[in-house]
Task: structure prediction
Amino acid sequence: MEFGRRRKAIGPSQSEYGHCLQLYGVPPTENISLAEFETFAVERVKLLKTVETLGVSYVKGSEDYYRKLSAEISNLNFPYKLEASAQDDRKQRETGPTECEKRRKDHISHFILRLAYCQTEDLRRWFIQQEMDLFRHRFADLPSRHKTEFLHQNDLRYDTITDKEKEALMEKLVQSTYTLSGAAVVEQDIYKVPFQDALDLVRTRKVFLMAGYAYIAHQDIVTIVLNDFRTRLSKALALTARSLPVVQSDERLQPLLSHLSHAYVGQDYSVQKNVGKISLEQIDPLSLKAFPLCMRQLHGTLRAQHHLRHGGRMQYGLFLKGIGLTLDQALQFWRAEFVKGKVDADKFDKAYAYSIRHMFGKEGKRTDYTPYSCLKVILSNAPSQGDFHGCPFRHSDPDLLKQKLQSYKVSPAGISQILELVKGMHYQLACQKYFELTHNIEDSGFSLNHPNQYFAESQKLLAGGKEVKKEVDSPSSAGQGAPARKPPDTPQSKPGNPVQAVAEMTEDLDSLFQDD
Ligand code: SF4
Result:
């Protein structure tokens, strides 16, 4: 894949993407604009995040799971289920991307995320899990004929048994495979694969085993294909990680990739709608009801110890800015608290006020920084001893988290649900559950990506459904403690120059804060 400012004028052809599903064996080789690179990647992250959320909120394969995931795949214009004919393509072109364009996006976006998600074990695991769930859903929903075509196109020619063998094994096959009836054994292909390739089916006793082979019904072959997909993807990510230094030496891609794995794909909090609408007196009561656990913890510590170390000041300071604190209010807030501790007013003005003004874009390069997203908080700058920043669901010891939730009067059943989600490493979903429990609602109805989103949703509920949050039209990858994106008419945000904007995002604010 080459990354230029212009893409080849030639569009993808039907023959290039012969099936709506891919095993992503061959990387894309066409030129692609950097703007398209970023858009594709952000949309796939968004899709994979939906896969994760639905996988925890619903039973995989259930009707709701099926309906919601299918809708999201279609909404984001990824290919799904049906192969389009050339005639369909012409029709679709009038209303949106053609089937070929969708397949191209599926192909390219998968490879871009490989680059972004091969970097750490945690990222690799998350990426493989979501890609597998997405693949399972799309494969399982293919008509039988398309499944067979897919297997053949990808050279997955598993051995099938002959009619004679079917006849001999009929009774055993029907008894051991609950999806098989006598008629189905006659009509369908029955695959014979080494049992170690079908461990999931063997473990759940869904197949007939004989002489080291598992006999698998056509509809269960997805398990085998998934194993294959996981093995390929896992190897590919390891290989990609090895070649990463070369890719990262490309100064256009490095900032994009490092931000993609932290990408926040929800609302853009770079522009605060409620500036000046929050008074300093409101912060204490708001912290109890409307702050997510990470910010509640930081606020409580600041009030108790009259100090936060730099990681905490950054995370909390940008959050407060995001909920509407003005620069004057922020200076007043931090000064009032710090002088109650070991810092006098003079030292505060010399050592801390600059960094707060910098956070608001009034010093240095005058860059307006945006609050941290959940992924940024979860994945970077883990807290060490004496730190209170980070995500309590990710960074707290489960026993301490339990104690904290008990002290916040979360019910024992609710605590168990939260701890179960934490155990499965679904930190944002655990936080969402905390939101539901502390707001007494069954279903929060949103997918949590950002502490400021938590606050906005809470305000919306507490205000009786009145809209507080700002809506944006398109997904954004901003929200990483990064400079706010420029308005659409500025040179930085013009198509073709996204890298400059992203490069600005990477400016390191940490160094401007006192490390104490
Ligand atoms: Fe904060 Fe996000 Fe963690 Fe919730 S999931 S505690 S909002 S970082």
User: Anything to note?
Assistant: Confidence is low (pLDDT under 50) at residues 4-12, 466-515. The pocket of iron/sulfur cluster is lined by residues 292-294, 374, 377-378, 391-393, 427-428, 431, 451, 454 (CB under 6 Å). The beta strands are 2-4, 31-33, 190-194, 208-210, 213-217. The chain has three domains: 34-148+227-260, 156-221, 271-467+502-512.
